[in-house]
Each structure stands twice: as C-alpha cells, then as structure tokens.
Amino acid sequence: MSSQRKRTAAKSRPGVRPGESVRILISRARVRQRVRQMARQIRRDFPHDTLHLVGVLKGSVLFLADLARELGGEVSFDFLSVSSYGKGTNSTGEVKLIKDLDVGIEGRTVLVVEDILDTGLTLKYLLRLFEERQPKHLRVVVLLDKSERRVADIHADYTGFVIPNEFVVGYGLDYDERYRNLADVCILQFAQHGSAKK
Ligand code: IMP
C-alpha cells in the first residue's frame, strides 16, 4: 500500500463505534500548516489591532486555540453558542442564540471563528447580529468550507480548506458530541449507508 493510501484508508480507531468508521480527509500536519498561513495573512491585514476572536461553540474551540497561538500580538477571546445540528447530520436551518458574548464588540476588530461553513445560515444570522453592535472591523475565519451546500449568500474572509459535501468530524467537529478529539479532519462513514453525505 502506498504511503498516501495508508494515510487515507478507513481505520478502526479507539473511540470509533461499531458500524461507524472515519477516514482522514485533512491530516493534522496539513491543518497545522494552513492555520499558520491563515494567521500570518490575518496579522498582515491587521498588524496593530487587538484581534478579538469570537468562537462559535463548541466546534471552533480547537481551531480558535491553534489560530490564537499563531497570531501573535494582542488577542482576546469570547464565545457564543447557537443551536446546531443536534443528534443527526442534517441542519434544521433554524438558528437560535443559546449563549451570547460576555463583552460588547463595539469598536473592536472582531474575527468570527467558525469550524465549518455549510449552508451559511448560522453565519448569516451571526453577522447580522454583530453588525448591529458596530465593531470597527468584522471578519469571518473558517477552517472548512462546504461551498456546494451554501444556501445563504455568505462568504468567509479567510478560509482554510474547501471540502466536498461529506459529513466531517475531528479537530473540534462532532457527530452527536463524539469525535471532536480526533486530531485530523475525517469523513464519517456508516457501515450500512456509506458516508453521511447530505
Ligand atoms: P451552517 O449554518 O449550515 O453553515 O452550519 C454550520 C454549523 O453546522 C457548523 O458550525 C457545524 O456545527 C455544523 N456542521 C455543518 N457541517 C458539518 C459537518 O460536516 N460535520 C459536523 N458539523 C457540521
């Protein structure tokens, strides 16, 4: 087996339930390298600003933590939580604010940090909410972009990877609250139905 095939082959790993399997889509090394590049680009665009990172819980936590360490300069964090997929792999399309930010964003340089941009409905809702609060700058950073699935007219200012229409887990992303701790971004597959494509 070539090293490339070895890397991407379906693996049975600790923590993977019977009937489910995960296949690496983006290795941890590629993620690390891309996060570093994105941080450099963001810092070049805002060399002197305190960057206020707003993470959307919980999927963005690992990405935000790595991005923050690469950014350098002054950085602050805040988090909010919105309703998401719940137990399945399909969005209801409905967005609800569950936990708001702790501090105001007026006059700040705000980077909304998201794990994945899918239909875009979550970000559309958040951007409208944040624009009303009059930040100095409002930018969107996403690790993954499933551009094929877009419903809302939304784009990210900084995108890590454009990915195919597959359900992905790992590096913070979950299925039913599981798999967030996988270090690679993986495609989740079910034994009987193939991948969890939407
Ligand atoms: P959107 O509103 O459809 O763009 O969905 C954004 C949210 O849906 C993300 O922040 C994730 O929580 C979740 N999501 C979308 N696609 C996936 C996926 O492939 N795996 C895990 N979560 C996903």
Account of the 3D structure:
By secondary structure, this protein is of the alpha/beta class. The chain is built from four helices and ten strands; from the N terminus they run αβαβαβββαβββββ. It has a six-stranded mixed β-sheet with strand order 4-3-2-5-6-7, with helices on both faces. Strands 1, 8, 9 and 10 form a four-stranded antiparallel β-sheet that branches. Strand 9 and strand 10 form a beta hairpin. Helix 2 packs across helix 3 (61-71). It binds inosinic acid. Inosinic acid binds next to strand 5, helix 4 and strand 8.
Outline the low-pLDDT stretches: none
Major sheet: order of its strands?
A: 4-3-2-5-6-7
User: What is the arithmetic mean of pLDDT?
Assistant: 89
Q: What general outline do the C-alpha atoms trace?
A: globular
Bound molecules: inosinic acid
Helical proportion, percent range? 10-25%
> Between the first and last Cα atoms, what is the distance in angstroms?
30 Å
DSSP strand content:
25-35%
Number of strands: 10
Round the Cα radius of gyration to an integer and report it. Answer: 17 Å
Give me the secondary-structure category.
alpha/beta
Taking the sheet with the most strands, its summary is: 6 strands, mixed
User: What's the helix-strand series?
Assistant: HEHEHEEEHEEEEE
The helix count comes to 4
Please outline what is shown here.
Helices cover 23% and strands 29% of the residues. It has 198 residues and is an alpha/beta fold. β2, α3 (61-71) and β3 (75-82) form a beta-alpha-beta unit.
Short key terms for the protein model shown above:
198 residues; 4 helices; alpha/beta; binds inosinic acid
